[in-house]
Amino acid sequence: MEDIIYNTNRKFQGLCYQGIGKQDHQLNTYDWLADIPGNDLESQYVEVQFKNTRKGYYRNSNGLQLQKGDIVAVEASPGHDIGVVTLTGRLVPLQMKKTNIRSEADIKRVYRKARQTDMEKYYEAKAREHTTMIEARQIALDLELQMKIGDVEYQGDGNKAIFYYIADERVDFRQLIKVLADAFRVRIEMKQIGARQEAGRIGGIGPCGRELCCATWMTSFVSVSTGAARIQDLSLNPQKLAGQCAKLKCCLNYEIDCYVESQKRLPSKEISLLTMDGEWFYFKADILANQITYSTDKQNLANAVTISSRRAFEIIGMNKRGKKPNSLLEESNQSAAAKTVDLVEQESLTRFDRTKKKKKKKSAAGGEKAKPQKPQAPREHVETQGNQPKQPKREHAQGEGKNKEPRNKRNKQNTDKQTLA
């Protein structure tokens, strides 16, 4: 049995190790077919990742035995580039369909596994990226171009450099390319990116305390409008709604569908409620809780009353029939008196003890049979003369002092005195 568990654990460890890869980038893909024998030989295409958000698909025409994590030299224009293999096997053609790569003319070749000389050139080129970016920013400032160079990426052989820039308007950088080519002696390629893509390349921590979504898992960016904030009843404060890219936060689109569905269960903002107290106007709403706050003043908050959407629809129906309720809260007191559930209390360690005590009380009140009582001895009565009532004899209780006389003797003494008198 232990041998079986050990073998199964090794099997799952191999699957996780081969399938996950390095998971430090939003472009990584989980290879769920990695555990199949011979999966690496099923396709001649491989996926290769480069710096930041750039990756490509290449043909292994030389029949190299490539696995995840291998550093390879691939075809570029001109020269060659250095990248890391991140996906092999049957899953690569599916990813190529996903990225709309159909013509084989666009697919370049894998030359070889990287050699020591290739890696030395690669590290020399990467060491120049930061200084090149600073100098290129100064050159663009001298030419008075309305653009910001966010990053520079050198090709693996150092013969080409890609300049990533941000610009709100169209920029004529023909003169800039000439100056950059003379300054750095490389082939220049300019690539425009958005503010969100720049934030993803730089990275950072969001106001939620987690790493930015654009730097961890987001690969495509959808436009975010102020309508998403209005639907969720958020204050249109740019300091709170904007992210580190100075654009509206991408997370505003995450819950908008839920808010749209919840708003369908609320009455219109333009409808006012008529009661015996007066006219009530819509002021604000808690969309997910289906609670609406009404005010007697249309512009400012005055005499605020919060009711449920069900109660609001009841009053609207009554107004259509020509009736007016006494107040807004007439039939909503029962719902207001309902006890709220404390979610924190559900995790209490003594929550099961409370339920047991309640069950015992209920069973004692109704279900359990009463315990049989011990039969009591019949009480003796003493006759007395005259109109005095008969006093029952009482046996002395246990625990009384030894010096005290029993009650029977005291009663006899009293009767003797009466007879002598």
What would you report as the Rg, rounded to the nearest angstrom? 42 Å
Quickly count the domains. Answer: 4
> Count of DSSP helices?
14
Helix percent band: 25-40%
Report the end-to-end length measured between terminal Cα atoms: 102 Å
Strand arrangement, major sheet: 1-2-5-3-4
Elements, N to C (H/E):
HEEEEHEHHEEHEHHHHHEEEEHHHEEH
Shape, per Cα inertia axes: elongated
Topology:
Blueprint: H1 2-20, E1 45-49, E2 55-59, E3 71-75, E4 80-87, H2 91-98, E5 108-113, H3 116-127, H4 129-142, E6 148-154, E7 160-166, H5 174-184, E8 187-192, H6 195-202, H7 213-216, H8 226-231, H9 238-241, H10 256-263, E9 273-275, E10 278-286, E11 291-295, E12 305-308, H11 309-320, H12 333-337, H13 351-367, E13 381-382, E14 391-392, H14 407-420
Parallel strand pairs: 2-5, 7-8
Antiparallel strand pairs: 1-2, 1-4, 3-4, 3-5, 6-7, 9-10, 10-11, 11-12, 13-14
Helix pairs in contact: 4-5
Report what the structure shows.
This protein is of the alpha+beta class. The chain has four domains: 2-114, no CATH class; 123-193, 2-Layer Sandwich (GMP Synthetase, Chain A, domain 3), CATH 3.30.300.20; 200-262, no CATH class; 273-337, no CATH class. Helix content is 34%, strand content 18%. The protein has helices at residues 2-20, 91-98, 116-127, 129-142, 174-184, 195-202, 213-216, 226-231, 238-241, 256-263, 309-320, 333-337, 351-367, 407-420; strands at 45-49, 55-59, 71-75, 80-87, 108-113, 148-154, 160-166, 187-192, 273-275, 278-286, 291-295, 305-308, 381-382, 391-392. The strands form four sheets. The chain has a five-stranded mixed beta barrel with strand order 1-2-5-3-4. A hairpin with a 5-residue loop joins strand 1 and strand 2 (55-59). Helix 4 (129-142) packs across helix 5. Mean pLDDT is 77; it is low at 1-16, 334-338, 366-370, 380-389 and 395-405.
